[in-house]
Each structure stands twice: as C-alpha cells, then as structure tokens.
Specification:
This protein is of the alpha/beta class and 370 residues long. Helix content is 42%, strand content 8%. The protein has one domain: Thiamin diphosphate (ThDP)-binding fold, Pyr/PP domains (Rossmann fold). It comes from Williamsia limnetica.
Length: 370
C-alpha cells in the first residue's frame, strides 16, 4: 500500500511509527507536517476586570516563583547535576497561578508529569522541591519520587503523575470523598490536551457529572501531546467541547493571562463549592521549552517562529504591563519580587546540595506496610 505525505499528515506520529517501523522516516514526515504553525490565540480574557493590587501581587509572585524555579532546574539538569527527566512548565505559569489563587489549603489538586508549577503555585517550598529533584532525604518524597511525583498533602497537593491522565480520577476521588463527608472543599485535576483522549478522563468526567461532584477539570491546552499537534490527535478544536457529553458546563480562557484564568476558574470553583457540580475549564496556553528538558530531544515538530510568537504574549510581562499602566503596582515592586525569589532559589539549591542521600538501609521504607 502506498502512503503519501498528505496521507501521513492526517494521522498521528505514533501510528506512523507503527506503520513504517522506522523512527527516522517518522521524523521526516512530522517535520513536513508542521509548516502550518499554531497561531497565538486572541486575548479573550482581556475584558475581565483588573483585580485588586493584592491579587495582582499574589499572581505575579506565584508566576515568578514558577518561572525562576523551572529556569534554575533546567540549568541544573543541563549541567548534569540532576538525575532523571524534567518536564518544564515555563510559559504556562498563568494557568497554575490563576487557578490556585482561588483555592484554600484544604482544596486538593492532582498534577501531571509537568507538575512543578502546580506544586509551587499551591504553596510548595523551594527547599523541599530542589532536594527532591536532587534525590535527597529532605525532599518532599525523601528523595524517592523525583520530578514527577512531588506531593504535599498538607497543602492539598495530591501528587504529580508520570502516567498521562493518571491524576484525573485521583482528584475526582478526592471530590467524591469531600461530598460524602459533607465538606465544602473543591478538587482540581490538571491535565493536557492529549490526556483528554485517555479513558481515565472520560470515566472520571462521567462519574463527576452523574454524582455532581465538586471538581473543576482544568485542561492546559498547550497545543501538543508531547510532539503531536492537537489537530493530529483529535478532531475537536476545543477540549471544552467534550464537557456537554457528561452533562456539565465548560469555559475557554486565555491561558497566557493570569487574570483571565483566575476569573474563569474562580467561577467554576464557586459553582462547585456551592453544590453546582463539575466544570471543565480549558486554558489555551503554550510551553516555551521542549517536551522534556531545555534542549529536548531535538525532534522537529514546531518552528522557532511559532515559539517566539507565543513569547510575545508572555504571561508575566502582560500582568506587569497591565498593573503598571493602571497605577496599581510599580516596576520597582515587581523588581523586588524577582530579587526575593532569586535569593530564595539560591539558598534552597545550596540547602538541597548539602542534604544527604537516602540510606540504603531504608530502601524498602514506605513500600510495604508494617
């Protein structure tokens, strides 16, 4: 059977790999399929009212903490100081910051393989975060989990997850427990556009809809499921269009605008907390770095021009410009936040590097029950 490039462009790279059996051929085909770039979305959230000065500073600090943590983690990885893989969140900061600004410590979230940003925005501390990345005992998982499994139940962080879509039913389970106990807490599973194709998403969404659970599904649609463009892994343009099948509403917001994300997720959280059931919020966003690491695997699937176009709408710069232009925050105040965060990072990296490695005698600790 003859397959033309036009035929191949209609299917996913994974299917192409199985079809041809050669990764080299796949790379050639997928690179020709990315001539059409993913255009930056219109700023649909620009009409949301500007929040208070306190909220603006809070959103800014959360985003800067994520940006600088991830930048330093990427630098350490490229320098060979960190073991394992890193899936960096740079570019998507507005989603975690905006969503988390609506939550209490008692509200719970589940995360993804790209989970550092969610943890930091929920209140995780740099010391324990870096120690975990270094594989040291002072890390959140005592050096056993690494990048993709950071959790802190005291702040409602149920954990990152190396399985695509794996965190979604966990958060729905937390929402079920809250409703069963008569609590007014809300759960948020974060996931990407690719995870909305996974069976766990559909099963969890169906259960949440039927039981009217207090859960807000937040899809971070960055346009790519690893290296596969959205147009090649689903027929829908908007993940939000999946929600009506399960009987609950959805909303699309500008994922590069922290104010827009805060407003959209805030409406959904209020609805869930008041017994209105689930909502799906789709945030259209973009990751600046490759799927893994800073330099990535050097697969050709998007252009540098596309990346630069999205950087023009950088979430932190947008918030700074808006706050300064409206006279709510000064440039000096924003500069102080950057400096404070950088100092925290430097101290925390030093702490992590001096933290001891796990003792081999405790190898089976927390693996088996007593």
């Amino acid at each position: 059977m003859v397959h033309t490039v036009e035929d191949v462009n209609k299917v996913s790279p994974n299917f192409v790999a199985a079809l041809f059996g050669h990764r080299e051929e796949v790379l050639v085909v997928t690179s020709t399929a990315t001539n059409a770039t993913r255009e930056a979305i219109e700023p649909v959230g620009s009409n949301d009212p500007t929040p208070s000065r306190e909220v603006l500073l809070d959103l800014h600090r959360r985003m800067v903490r994520i940006r600088q943590f991830e930048t330093e983690a990427g630098r350490l990885m490229e320098g060979g100081k960190l073991p394992g893989f890193l899936h960096l969140y740079v570019g998507q900061e507005a989603v975690a910051a905006g969503a988390m600004s609506n939550l209490r410590d008692t509200d719970q979230i589940s995360s993804t393989h790209r989970g550092h940003g969610h943890a930091v925005a929920k209140g995780a501390q740099f010391r324990q975060m870096f120690a975990e990345l270094f594989g040291r005992v002072d890390g959140y998982c005592k050096g056993r989990g690494g990048s993709m499994h950071i959790n802190d139940l005291s702040i409602g962080m149920l954990g990152a997850n190396g399985i695509v879509g794996g965190g979604i039913p966990i958060a729905v389970g937390a929402a079920f427990a809250a409703k069963y106990r008569g609590e007014d807490t809300v759960a948020i599973p974060f996931f990407g556009d690719g995870a909305s194709n996974i069976g766990a998403f559909h099963e969890a969404a169906n259960m949440a809809g039927i039981l009217e659970l207090p859960v807000v599904f937040v899809c971070e649609n960055n346009g790519y499921a690893e290296f596969t463009a959205l147009r090649d892994h689903m027929k829908l343009e908007n993940v939000a269009d999946r929600a009506p099948a399960y009987g609950f509403p959805s909303e699309i917001c500008d994922g590069m605008d922290a104010i827009a994300v805060r407003a959209a997720v805030g409406r959904a959280v209020e609805r869930a907390r008041n017994g209105g059931g689930p909502t799906l919020v789709e945030a259209k966003t973009y990751r600046y770095y490759d799927h893994q690491g800073v330099k990535g695997l050097r697969k050709t699937y998007r252009t540098q021009e596309e990346v630069e176009a999205w950087k023009e709408r950088d979430a932190i710069k947008l918030l700074e410009a808006r706050a300064v232009s409206e006279g709510l925050v000064t440039e000096g105040e924003f500069a102080n936040i950057w400096a404070e965060v950088d100092a925290d990072i430097a101290e925390s990296v030093a702490f992590a590097e001096n933290s001891p490695f796990p003792d081999l005698a405790d190898f089976a600790l927390n693996v088996y029950s007593d």
